[in-house]
């Protein structure tokens, strides 16, 4: 639909959302707070309780199952396909990518509007982002701090993209492809580094299998490795189309 309105807008959306999704996947891949029991420190345990990286379904069931909280609630926490995701919850990918998507459209349209229309469009954009937060909280797929962090990173990312747009759009194909290949190599290096540090790279998948009552709710295409490969594939497609200024 965006391509029908404007090819320039479509190109910006693919570029911005692709980079935001990749940034989110790398954030979850590089820095999960899930070391083995031998490596857990007091600060790590505190961070787990204050700003948990787990999803609400996992954390609440683990707390009540281990008798950390008592008495048990009278209403069971229901599970459904959306709440049985296999990636970490922080930062929220939906919030981050939707923020980038919405603000990209808002900034593109604001260039052709007067101040009153820009103010109205901005209010609608941030209202939609707030509704995204509510939807993730209602489905019990993320905590509020995970949604807020996702939006914050998305706003910072889109600001950085705007400041460096001319540089990024003028990069030649060989430089862009080389950069994507280096990112792929870095992701593989982090994987083996985690294994050597006794950190489980698949901890979020194990949490999902542990606390989701129906394994059919989980999808292999929603695993952290699949997301990482998918996003690197998107970046490679963007790199092969470089320089984007010629599109």
Automatic annotation (TrEMBL):
Highest taxon of the lineage: Eukaryota
InterPro entries linked to this entry: PAP2/HPO
Membrane topology: Multi-pass membrane protein
Keywords: Membrane, Transmembrane, Transmembrane helix
GO cellular component, one term: membrane
Location(s), subcellular: Membrane
Coiled-coil regions listed in the entry: none
Phosphatidic acid phosphatase type 2/haloperoxidase domain location: 12-160
Gene Ontology BP terms: gluconeogenesis; glucose 6-phosphate metabolic process
TM region positions: 93-112, 119-137, 143-162, 174-193
Keyword Plastid: no
GO molecular function: glucose-6-phosphatase activity
Record's keyword annotation contains Ribonucleoprotein: no
Record-given protein name: Blast:Glucose-6-phosphatase 2
């Amino acid at each position: 639909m965006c391509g029908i309105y404007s090819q320039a807008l479509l190109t910006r959306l693919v570029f911005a959302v692709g980079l935001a999704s990749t940034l989110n996947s790398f954030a979850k891949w590089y820095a999960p707070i899930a070391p083995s029991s031998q490596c857990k420190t007091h600060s790590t345990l505190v961070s787990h309780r204050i700003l948990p990286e787990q999803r609400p379904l996992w954390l609440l069931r683990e707390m009540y199952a281990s008798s950390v909280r008592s008495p048990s609630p009278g209403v069971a926490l229901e599970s459904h396909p959306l709440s049985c995701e296999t990636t970490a919850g922080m930062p929220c990918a939906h919030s981050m990518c939707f923020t980038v998507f919405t603000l990209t459209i808002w900034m593109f349209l604001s260039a052709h509007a007067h101040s009153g229309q820009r103010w109205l469009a901005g209010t609608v954009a941030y209202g939609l982002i707030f509704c995204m937060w509510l939807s993730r909280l209602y489905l019990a797929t993320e905590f509020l701090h995970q949604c807020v962090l996702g939006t914050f990173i998305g706003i910072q990312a889109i600001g950085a993209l705007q400041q460096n747009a001319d540089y990024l759009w003028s990069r030649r194909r060989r430089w862009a492809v080389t950069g994507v290949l280096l990112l792929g190599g870095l992701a593989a290096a982090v994987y083996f580094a985690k294994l050597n540090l006794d950190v489980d790279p698949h901890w979020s998948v194990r949490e999902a299998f542990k606390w989701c009552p129906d394994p059919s709710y989980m999808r292999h295409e929603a695993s952290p490795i699949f997301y990482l490969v998918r996003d690197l594939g998107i970046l490679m497609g963007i790199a092969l189309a470089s320089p984007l200024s010629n599109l």
